[in-house]
Design a protein that fits this description.
Blueprint: H1 4-16, E1 23-25, E2 31-32, E3 39-42, H2 46-53, H3 57-66, E4 69-72, H4 75-85, H5 93-100, H6 103-116, H7 139-150, H8 154-161, H9 181-195, E5 203-207, H10 213-222, E6 225-230, H11 233-246, E7 252-256, E8 267-273, H12 284-294, E9 295-308, H13 321-327, H14 336-345, E10 349-355, H15 357-373, H16 375-382, H17 384-402, E11 406-414
Parallel strand pairs: 1-3, 5-6, 5-8, 6-7, 8-9
Antiparallel strand pairs: 1-2, 3-4, 9-11, 10-11
Helix pairs in contact: 1-6, 2-3, 2-6, 3-17, 8-16, 9-10, 12-14, 15-17, 16-17
């Protein structure tokens, strides 16, 4: 009888109708596939059962999180090779139905079942969050979702994010090794402050303030008085400790508060950095309207938000299974055009949009490097399964940004008064050197 790796390779290539781009090593020690490619290690038969009972991305994610599947070699190369065969296959229900009518396809499925062993579906890893996607984005459900993602442990995030403790796209002067992650995050925070034109004594509302980095930067370097809000108790405690150590408790207040409960406007400026992805499509207009109401006339909003590419049929958009189950429960991405439209419907005048997509890929690769450099400690703090979630999520996201499957944009919007005076300079940004006369 052929070894397990050769048999599995043949079955998978029949199911995918394409050569397998990576090498396989199975639980019996056998290997098959391209000799120079990264190795997909199938550590046990349970990995196959996960794929059979939950075909596609979620089954693969469960096997990865549980440690049933691992990769030897460069993770980015392996994910890039697998993406074309699995994640980026443009197949709909009709294509799947046609495959199931194919006798050879059904035969391959039966052989995979035989390799997998007793037909019992393994329980999902306990890190998985699964609940019906209805009744989303109530204050209670949002708090629960934020807690799942951010209350992993501040020590764990210190490893991944580094001293800046900024969990959003940095702003790089050039690809690494030029510059450090800490400097690039400082430059991003300063870019936000400059776009908001923060001045001493102004009131800034930082929505989704994280561990307090933007609030500290705005108060310390621009003299602003800041209110930061988060739904994470762990983030709030950490931010307050940092603020006390900086001697800024008289200038910064950190609240555990939903944005819908903020009533002490008006503010001169609002920053929302990496928070709007949690709002959800059903609530986005409400979110934009609340922020518009909290700004004084002439005040500016800086909305820093990940965007997905638009689809031909927007009604067919589905939330990524792995992200929803393990990373950002209830999170949603919208196309940039949708975000701009909803901000305008809420009353804002959108004055500037800057894409910094490539910067996020560079940032994510640095976070992955931080995690892998201290893997044992990180796994000890958050658990091996949770560390594998973050490793896969960040590495796959880096590739998605590099391939323009998702992007990230900074939108400057103004609550322009009836006079029409936006308060922005005529040339808010300068594009290169002027042409010679």
């Amino acid at each position: 009888m052929a070894d397990a790796a050769s048999r599995l390779k043949g079955i998978l290539e029949q199911l995918l109708a394409a050569p397998l781009p990576v090498r396989i090593r199975t639980w019996d020690g056998s290997e098959a596939g391209p000799p120079e490619a990264p190795v997909l290690v199938v550590r046990n038969r349970r990995a196959l059962r996960r794929l059979l009972f939950k075909p596609g991305e979620l089954g693969l994610a469960r096997a990865w999180v549980a440690g049933d599947l691992t990769i030897e070699g460069d993770l980015y190369t392996a994910l890039g090779l697998l993406a074309g065969s699995i994640w980026e296959r443009d197949e709909d229900a009709r294509t799947l139905a046609q495959s199931l009518r194919d006798p050879e396809f059904r035969s391959a499925v039966r052989r995979l079942f035989a390799m997998a062993g007793p037909p019992l579906p393994p329980a999902p890893p306990r890190e998985e969050v699964r609940r019906p996607r209805r009744g989303l984005h109530t204050k209670r459900s949002d708090k629960r979702a934020i807690s799942h993602h951010y209350d992993v442990g501040n020590d764990f995030y210190e490893i991944v994010l580094g001293p800046s403790m900024v969990y959003s796209c940095a702003y790089w002067p050039a690809p690494p090794p030029e510059g450090t992650l800490e400097q690039a995050q400082h430059d991003k925070l300063d870019l936000v402050a400059r776009k908001l034109a923060l001045r001493p004594g102004q009131r800034l509302l930082d929505v989704g303030c994280g561990w307090g980095s933007m609030a500290i930067h705005a108060a310390r370097e621009h003299g602003a008085n800041v209110v930061g809000i988060t739904l994470s108790q762990e983030q709030a405690a950490y931010a307050r400790k940092r603020i006390a150590e900086e001697g800024l408790t008289d200038r910064i207040e950190i609240r555990v508060q939903d944005y819908r409960d903020v009533t002490d406007g008006p503010y001169d400026a609002i920053s929302s950095i990496g928070m709007a992805e949690h709002v959800g499509s059903e609530r986005y207009l409400e979110y934009a309207t609340v922020l518009h109401r909290l700004l004084k006339p002439g005040g500016r909003l800086l909305n820093h938000q990940i965007a997905r590419r638009p689809q031909r049929d927007e009604e067919s958009y589905q939330v990524d299974d792995f992200i929803d189950a393990y990373v950002f429960p209830d999170g949603e991405l919208a196309p940039l055009g949708t975000t701009v439209t909803l901000l305008e419907r809420a009353g804002f005048e959108v004055r500037d949009v800057e894409s910094i997509r490539e910067h996020y890929a560079l940032t994510l690769r640095r976070w992955v490097a931080n995690l892998e450099a201290e893997w044992s400690r990180a796994a000890g703090l958050a658990g091996p399964a949770r560390a594998r979630v973050w490793q896969l999520y960040m590495a796959a996201s880096a590739l998605a940004f590099e391939r323009n499957r998702i992007g990230v944009n900074q939108v400057v919007a103004v609550r322009t008064p009836e006079s029409g005076a936006s308060g922005l300079p005529l040339r808010a940004r300068v594009w290169g050197a002027p042409a010679p006369a």
